[in-house]
Design brief:
homodimer; alpha+beta; Arc Repressor Mutant, subunit A; Beta-Lactamase; 2 domains; 9 helices; DNA-binding; DNA binding (chains A, B); transcription (chains A, B); DNA-binding (chains A, B); DNA-binding transcription factor activity (chains A, B)
Chain lengths: ~280, ~280
Amino acid sequence: MSEKPVSSAGLRRDMEILEVLAGHGDGPDADGFGVNWIAQRLGREKSQVSRALRALEAEGMVERDPVTRRYRLGWRLFSLAARTQQSRLVRVAEPFLRHLATLFDEDTHLCVLRGEMVLTLSSVPSSRAYHRIWEGVSVPVIMAAAGRSLLADWEDEQIRELLRAALPSGLDSAIGGEEQWLADIEHVRTAGYAVTDVELEDSAAGVSAPVREHRGLIAAAISVSVTRTPAESRMREMGAVVAETARRLSTALGLPPGAPGSGADRSPDPAGSAGGR
Amino acid sequence: MSEKPVSSAGLRRDMEILEVLAGHGDGPDADGFGVNWIAQRLGREKSQVSRALRALEAEGMVERDPVTRRYRLGWRLFSLAARTQQSRLVRVAEPFLRHLATLFDEDTHLCVLRGEMVLTLSSVPSSRAYHRIWEGVSVPVIMAAAGRSLLADWEDEQIRELLRAALPSGLDSAIGGEEQWLADIEHVRTAGYAVTDVELEDSAAGVSAPVREHRGLIAAAISVSVTRTPAESRMREMGAVVAETARRLSTALGLPPGAPGSGADRSPDPAGSAGGR
DNA sequence: ACTTATTTTGCGCTGAATGCAACCAACCGC
DNA sequence: GCGGTTGGTTGCATTCAGCGCAAAATAAGT
């Protein structure tokens, strides 16, 4: 009659504490929070919070600045998440891919970037008959429909470098020149998806959108290949849907609500003058 | 003298469970883990694990596949992890790592010191095929390529202490003796980077350089592992580039242009942070 | 259907978390 | 130096929540 004894009290308390520590935005955001502040915010006993925090620290869930005595989230959370993110990606993405595959009735793929190659992790085929199996196959990033989405966070300079290295011959016209690429990528940054016309023979055209993991980095891309190219407007429609799906997948992977385009901080050029090769 | 009332029992149990869920590599890696398997692996009561998992699920720390009934880490954990200090560091460092990875076409890592272990925060793989995933994994500081860079600000005496504690057997020759270490570290202080020959099997050799945060303290290290060892001179070239990149990253983190060697204040007693005991 | 494998639940008992208050330690202005 | 204020830890009796055992429920084979 009272309530459900669903979750244990101690755990709930710990989670509340972690949530407070995670919550940037209110209070002295500067760095970390003191015991008293947390206790007051949760309406709990100081002693309780103090002890809980010491336990959490012993486990590495939080860490304490030795000088300011303030707590913040610890390395253990990061470590746990980082080790699992990889395997989690495919599993969590599957229903999203299937949704798109049935919605458009086109082959839908999940791709990741490895070096300068795009690796297809999983595919959901359309209802139409045989398809080429892409799972486990790598193709050069400039050839893949998902390429533009996967590179969206790269510095323009790095992209140019990659393109110049990967476009030895006069293929420029075939897959679009450097400027076309940069324009496409800018489109990914603003609109959230990419539209490609002609690249690999098998997947003539397609739309793709970047998927971000918990840290906000682009971890993968959803790519829908289109066999018979529809009208331009239709492609854009599809792109918007794919982008939205990719965004929801990102959230399911733990990406916090903020910074969808990751416009947060385009960090300064790491290359600089270090040209030596 | 029986035991230490360090950490609470329930929390420790929960952490052990999470650690099992994060640890893919043994057991039915495929998808999550069942209650029984976890209980057996931890040597705990099934009932205990069952209840703990339900509580963790209610908090979103783990999630259960409704059909296979297996557990795996949940969105809440990832969401929290995204807001750690380490995540911020990773996000800022990523383009710098990528720059090095493409420049050398070698795996590039960002590592931090945690107690006497080196935790790899993020890795950017080279174009060459499959590599071991190091993200979220810790290795002893004496085994890591980044170790020398991370310890560069320590007092010689403390380094000796650490080495003596960490070198129980006759490994000295394998990874270089005390004096070799101190010489290497002195090299980091003067030249800004470290070169290591043979440590972990997987990352045979590499170069690394320390990254400093706004106060000038070493917060992390960039480490480029080299699979096929190139000539000595080439390694030194790479070292210089890595050091320069690390310095740019430091600046991006808020380090003022001055005091690159941070000879400013060799902090008197960092020993307080010593881990287990 | 039966048998096995896996997970959940009921329930006394014990140990660990709770809350209060006292205690400790900085920090601040004077 | 002193009293005051803020921030954090510790001692201790009470009490409640988690523990383990075993039995019930559920799923999965055969």
